[in-house]
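Why predict the complex rather than its parts? Because the way molecules touch one another can change local conformation, and only a joint prediction can capture that. The input here totals 899 residues.
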Amino acid sequence: MTAKRDILRAIEAARAKGYVVFAPTRLEGIPLLAEIEEPLVIDFDHVLTVNTLKDILLPRCERLARLDVEGSGIDPTGDRDAAILVFGSRPCDAAALAILDAILLGEVRDARYERRRAKTIIMTVACSTCDDACFCTSMGYGPHDGTGSDVLLVPAGGGYSVAGVSEKGKAFLSAVGLKEDTGGGDAPPVLSRKVETGDLKAWLDANFDNPVWRDVSENCVSCGTCYYLCPTCHCFDITDETGGARGERLRIWDCCSFSDFTKMAGHQPRRGRHARYRQRVMHKFAYCPDNVGKVACVGDGRCIRHCPYGVDICEVLSKLVSTK
Amino acid sequence: MASDAEAQLREKVKDLLARGKVKLVLGYGKRSGGGVRPLFTKLPDDAERLVWNDQCAPNLAGYLTREPCLGIMHGGGRVGIVAKGCDVRAIVGLVQEKQVKREAVHVIGLVCDGIAAGGSGAAGVPSKCLECEWHTPPMADDLIGDKAAVAPRAGDALADDKRIEGMTDEERWQFWTALFSRCIKCYACRQACPLCYCKECITEKSRPQWIAKSSTIRGNLAYHFIRAMHLAGRCIGCEECRRACPVGIPVDLLSRFLTRRVEEAFGYKPGRDPAEEPFFVTSKENDPDDFIR
Amino acid sequence: MPGNAANSEDLIPQLATVVAVRQETPDIRSLRLGFESPEAREAFAFRPGQFCLVSALGIGEAVFCISSPPAWKDAIEVSVKQVGKVTAAIHDLEVGDRVGLRGPYGNWFPYEAMLGRNVVFVGGGIGLAPLRPLIWQTLSERTKFKDVHIVYGARTVRDLVYTDDLAEWAKVPGVRLVRTVDPGGEDATWNGEVGLVPAVLEKTKPSSDGVLVVCGPPIMIKFALLAATRLGFDPKDVITTLEMKMKCGVGLCGRCNIGSRYVCRDGPVFTLKEMQALPDEF
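Output of the joint prediction:
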């Protein structure tokens, strides 16, 4: 087993090599993934950060280009040069990246996401605890799963086991002088929450117009929290913001629960909260499987944990599949 | 709060639904992992799932302007609602602004000591409970709980307000800018607010785009400042916006600050009397104007 | 079918210049856009049915079908109806102004499947815009098709677009052009039909042994599809192009889907048979 101090030393070595490091910290007590200068601020005691790897790889507000209407026209904004180390992501967060990769690096590749992804190392710390909102095992993942990670650290008797999951991860370990050490590993925590989704896809394909959609979306007020915190929600808007002749073209997170998401001049194809909630569920559990072969949910539970009105996706899915 | 209030509540709701006095009752139910969440009860037996305790923070009045409640009331039916004093103030606001007809709502008022520390998500007792004058909700069609036994939560509700009032203009600008800089523009605060019922929000207007969509400082300040202006003199301080915010911003500070200034200058307090005209649509001859420069 | 955009997309437009402007109707303006170089125009090779995104710099970007014949060497054309912030800004552009341009994206009309068959084009209002390049392409190889019918209408005489093209098309041998305006939309000199497009389509009784291509406002498409079904057309042979709100145009932003199909990537051209398998969400 590898001691924590050796892990922190490796992070420091990465910083010395020019990596920008993101890790979990606490801001007014809230666990948040943030850029850090100093490994000592890393928090190891949280279950899950409120924010996700999306903040880094598909930022909430990203300048695509500067606009100079009377001058050069459009000047694309370059990428930040530095390589990125994300330390302390959880297995669910890393698995979400595998899903985002399938969507954003498919037939058409999102160039910026691709470049950032290529220079990012995901160094996941597996879970030693979970809470009652976690349901990764029901989605086919687990608290010690390595899907989507480059390096996986698993708590092991006071320290960690270290595994290079990808070639990129192995090369990184070598570069920062951290040896693979795959012996041991504490038992993973046992999740209390389970959801059986069974024939969900077949039910969704056949029940677009089922009135049960109104029932399951009753509590929802379309507040957008679940979309913004979800590690696989990727929808975005492109907007020009200028003062006079100069300004910028931005890519910003958008959300299918907003009423103007699909609203055109004189035509709104998705009227009503239930129609937009249905889109959320369909996109994740029917359309993504159709298009990229993956369910767009990793069971991290942020939507359940943070919904101010108690909408629970596991309850929703169970209710749907059991409705005629 | 006695747990026999909970038993009385269940009996009352069961009775209302069984007799067809209301088509639906908005109340609180258990939430997995602890705490409560809104519960829509439609059949008499659903009433057994209702709870009443010191975690019942959400303001259910916001559901009155949405489906299915909207459809029920437009169709001539009535909706029941479990309401604390702060929640009733929101209902009063909706009645004043003609969004909801008083007779279409059956208010089941619950006497309330205040939400327990941590009960609304953030640590500590909500500041609305520290300044509450409405432990016994007014305008209740049915009242449950012993108003003589109220044990209000203690603390200085006005601490934030005094601190902000004591700041210079420059300090205030820094304060509000810092507060809203981590806003992610998810609009949860707007959706959570019972008095934000506009079918087309000013954020959706594109000609002109008054409010930049981005979560930059210009987009965030434009949104929060304009929204606070729309809530000045209307905000009843239920703190739903704060409770809903995924990044922990006390969104209500600004609109409550402005509402207190309205009270000081004009003697108007929102949500106290459904027969009162809303503040911004009235003017009186003796309205003060010494602050107009 | 994917469009022929490069498959790595950074969402940055190229610059193009407005080289000509034509006011088609009171609220529709066609803009001819010239490229920065012949290579840029060549790289923009498109097929009828595909769309592009045009930016009014500093205001925003919007989706338009490419409404010019692919054979035009130096420029492309888009026809813009003024309905909101971006289209209003585009209407203010003059010759010489620059715009941003991205594309071509989307799939295209199944031209090869039309060869050797009867073809009926049905357009309503600005819906003639995506059909225009296809009609020109068809008529430039007229002998490869059997009968060609064009049924086109608008609310009033003043709302008809491409009146010059319509006159040219009517002159081509073996082309039957039927123009119509909605009841009340005729004027003293009108010599075409009076009636809603779907009704006029049924009245012209085209042979159902052929391909029918329709585009117009959503409500018109809906009724035209019903008319086509009543006339006996096979749903595989009834083709339309759908419009949904779009931002990225390449299937990344998650917005323009109807069920699991993205209109920008799996469309905008769909057959009636494909649409019958989609949820009613457009």
